[in-house]
Design goal:
Blueprint: H1 31-45
The structure holds zinc ion.
Length: 60
C-alpha cells in the first residue's frame, strides 16, 4: 500500500483553519486565512495595546 493519496499530494494544509491549501493562496486555503496568519505573525512582534474607548468621565 504505497499509492499516493490525491488528497495528500503535498500534505499542505491551511495552518489557520486546517482546510486543504490552494495553489493560489498556498500555504493557505484563502486570502482570508492568509491575512489572519499575517496578523497573528505581526501580533507577536508588535504588541498593540488594546485601549478601550474611554469616554470623558473624569471627575473634577
Ligand atoms: Zn484556511
Amino acid at each position: 500500500m504505497s499509492s499516493p493519496d490525491p488528497a495528500r499530494r503535498r500534505g499542505s494544509h491551511c495552518a489557520v483553519c486546517g482546510k486543504p491549501a490552494t495553489p493560489a493562496h498556498a500555504p493557505f486555503c484563502s486570502q482570508g486565512c492568509r491575512d489572519r496568519d499575517l496578523l497573528q505573525w505581526l501580533g507577536e512582534g508588535y504588541r498593540i495595546p488594546a485601549r478601550p474607548a474611554v469616554d470623558e468621565d473624569e471627575e473634577g
